[in-house]
């Protein structure tokens, strides 16, 4: 069971909060319940949690007695939500947020995992656990049935000799993996497209390719924009694998670019992309929720392909949150170049939050706009 902590008291903040967007769900509760017996036998530091949305697994396990929990959450907003929930509900919980690498799982005997939707992300997680965790590690990997496929079982079987499937409960299910095999640690996928080297670890948006929205944006970016200096770098906001940042740096030798994403796997991928293209010394890649590291009124040009998911949920509140921080960082007269699915009708929001907005390009699915900061 999930101990004394009432998971319904968890919040998603600083991530988007809205009716229907929950901080804990039935899958979190099922993972905790299925793993309860195994966790009871653990010593300090023997539990790892991966993919915890907002702290349900970490704090649920801490409430049941787990100490020294190691945690990896891909979005930085998830880390912040876990820390905020711990301060408010369980200040005595002991945990540390770590990257997805050997140190996260070394010696771990139980791993609690919220299944990612990307099979490549799951493969990278499974390989990391199998390569570095204790030989007797047991992985409790759960999710909502509507987001699970039998291919996930196959991915886990590629890294573990035994995978069992629990009965479904409340439209959730848990896969239990045991006996890790001999698998190498994960490496970035690689592709060369239109002369650009792209590197992507599992779960990075678009993977080792250029999605059609970004391709339209690249084809229409201004040829001689203002900025591009150390004091006023061009900003690739929500950079993903860093395709825009790397393209800018290649097109404009000597220019400075700042690429930002809250996803740990995106930042790792973007850094690998910069190295592969020989522009690592001119592109700063930062893991940041929004653009909190950038001062007000400090940029002349920002490019953005905004996400429209908050976790597994589609939400129209994600992009306006990014627009507002772009408005804060842009200088008066600076421009936000944005590509978006035309059906989302972002132009009124861009006009309201940034300023006058003009259409630059449009194809059957996407629109590129440039908004000038008032």
Q: How many helices in DSSP terms?
A: 11
Structural class: alpha/beta
Number of domains: 2
Evaluate the radius of gyration: 21 Å
CATH topology of the largest domain: Rossmann fold
User: What's the oligomerization state?
Assistant: single chain
Strand order of the largest sheet: 3-2-1-4-5-7-6
Into which percent range does the helicity of residues fall?
A: 25-40%
**N-to-C SSE series?**
HEHEHEHEHEHEEEEHEHEHEEEEHEHEE
Whole-number mean pLDDT: 95
What do these coordinates show?
With 374 residues, the chain is an alpha/beta fold. The chain folds into two domains: 7-180, Vaccinia Virus protein VP39 (Rossmann fold, 3-Layer(aba) Sandwich), CATH 3.40.50; 189-372, Vaccinia Virus protein VP39 (Rossmann fold), CATH 3.40.50.150. It contains eleven helices and 18 strands. It has helices at 26-40, 56-63, 76-89, 102-105, 119-132, 150-157, 212-220, 243-251, 264-276, 318-329, 347-353; strands at 47-50, 69-72, 95-97, 110-114, 138-144, 160-165, 172-180, 189-193, 196-200, 234-237, 257-261, 283-287, 299-304, 309-310, 313-314, 330-341, 357-362, 366-372. The strands form four sheets. A seven-stranded mixed β-sheet has the order 3-2-1-4-5-7-6, with helices on both faces. It has a seven-stranded mixed β-sheet with strand order 12-11-10-13-16-18-17. α1 (26-40) runs parallel beside α2 and α5 packs parallel to α6. The radius of gyration is 21 Å and the shape is globular. The termini are far apart. 51% of the residues are buried.
């Amino acid at each position: 069971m999930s101990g004394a902590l009432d998971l319904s008291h968890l919040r998603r903040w600083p991530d988007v909060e809205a009716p229907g967007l929950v901080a804990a769900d039935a899958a979190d509760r099922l993972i905790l319940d299925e793993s309860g017996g195994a966790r009871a036998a653990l010593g300090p530091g023997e539990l790892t949690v991966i993919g915890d949305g907002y702290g349900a697994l970490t704090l649920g396990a801490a409430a049941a007695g787990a100490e020294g929990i190691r945690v990896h959450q891909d979005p930085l907003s998830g880390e912040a939500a876990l820390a905020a929930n711990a301060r408010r509900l369980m200040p005595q919980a002991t945990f540390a947020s770590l990257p997805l690498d050997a140190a996260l799982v070394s010696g771990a005997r139980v791993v609690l995992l919220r299944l990612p939707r990307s099979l490549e992300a799951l493969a990278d997680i499974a390989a990391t656990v199998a390569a570095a965790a204790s030989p007797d590690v047991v992985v409790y990997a759960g999710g909502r049935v509507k987001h699970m496929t039998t291919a996930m079982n196959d991915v886990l079987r590629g890294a573990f000799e035994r995978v069992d499937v629990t009965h479904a409960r409340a439209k959730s299910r848990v896969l239990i993996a045991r006996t890790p095999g001999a698998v190498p640690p994960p490496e970035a996928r690689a592709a060369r497209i239109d002369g650009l080297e792209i590197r992507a670890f599992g779960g990075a948006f678009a993977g080792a390719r250029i999605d059609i929205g970004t391709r339209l944006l690249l084809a229409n970016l201004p040829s001689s924009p203002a900025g591009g200096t150390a004091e006023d770098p061009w900003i690739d906001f929500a950079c993903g694998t860093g395709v825009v940042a790397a393209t800018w740096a290649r097109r404009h030798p000597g220019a400075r670019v700042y690429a930002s994403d809250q996803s740990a796997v995106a930042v790792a991928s973007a850094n690998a992309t910069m190295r592969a293209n020989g522009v690592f010394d001119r592109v700063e890649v930062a893991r940041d929720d929004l653009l909190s590291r950038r001062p007000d009124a400090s940029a002349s040009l920002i490019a953005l392909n905004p996400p429209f998911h908050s976790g597994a949920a589609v939400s129209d509140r994600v992009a306006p949150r990014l627009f507002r921080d772009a408005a804060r960082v842009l200088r008066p007269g600076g421009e936000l170049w944005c590509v978006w699915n035309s059906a989302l009708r972002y132009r009124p929001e861009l006009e309201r939050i940034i300023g006058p907005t003009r259409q630059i390009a449009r194809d059957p699915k996407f629109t590129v706009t440039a908004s000038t900061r008032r």
